[in-house]
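Q: What would this chain look like folded?
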Amino acid sequence: MQQSLLDALTWREVHVPSTSAAGTVPLKIGEAGTGKPRGLIVASQHGDEGPWGTRAIRKFLESTPASDLVGSIRVVPVMNPMAFDEQTRESHIDAEDLNSLLPGDPDGRHTERLGHAVVTEVAPDVDVLIDVHGGGHWCLNGFVYKFAGSEDLAHAIGGDFVRFGHERGEASLTCYLRNRGAKVVWLEMGGAGTTEELWAQRIADGARRAFGNLGVLKPSSLPEPKPAKEVPEAKSFRTPKPGLYLPALREPDVATIVDGGTLIGTTIDSVTNDVIHEFRAPFAKTAVMLIRPRLAVVEAGEMICVMGNAG
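A: My prediction, written as structure tokens:
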């Protein structure tokens, strides 16, 4: 039987101080090969993005023959173990966002120390980064951020919509490595639902094409994806008041284009179900980039959706 890239991985652990009860938390890093270029794929920096990115990485590894490896590869399926376990965006220990504090601090609080471990143990000598984010239990996403000089990498992923990641923070892993000369792409694809395995497979296929195009792996035999729709402008919507959110756009509508004025959803009174506020597509041709697809209890200021200008 042909050995897969998954079988070829060697795993090591970096132990990051956490709580007095746990002591440390292991950051698990898988590696295969020793050559250049070195590729890195990571997921679950945010615990509320759940297991979908880790599932995609598994699919990529088990479907790729180890003999396809040209350079070397590093994988971190769970970048933020405490937040991952809690299924929250940040760990309860310090409520810090791992993806906005690199290079971290070896003498700081838990997440700062985790950031330092990422910089020193995960990020060194990386040439190509695939940074997997996505929806979670509460939302579904369908787009990719691209960066100047790495447009070919973003195309290979095969997202439905693509935006330049100008607003992504310099302290994120993607921008940290981009500033050090790596080719980078930031995914926002998938989430919980009936199509979660399909999204995971799309990400896995995109990773295979991308690493093949950049020389980490042999070129892929997978078909080229259709060009993603450019979205130069996007608008996010948040709840003006607490209540219930009743979606009009559901799971099948993510990564589609709807007409301006299309009802996205409404917030309604928790007791009477009277309408509090309506959310509508803001552009003549609106890209559905992120949505809440299910009925949910919401507080004031909660994210409802992200809509892009696809016109």
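The mean pLDDT is 95.
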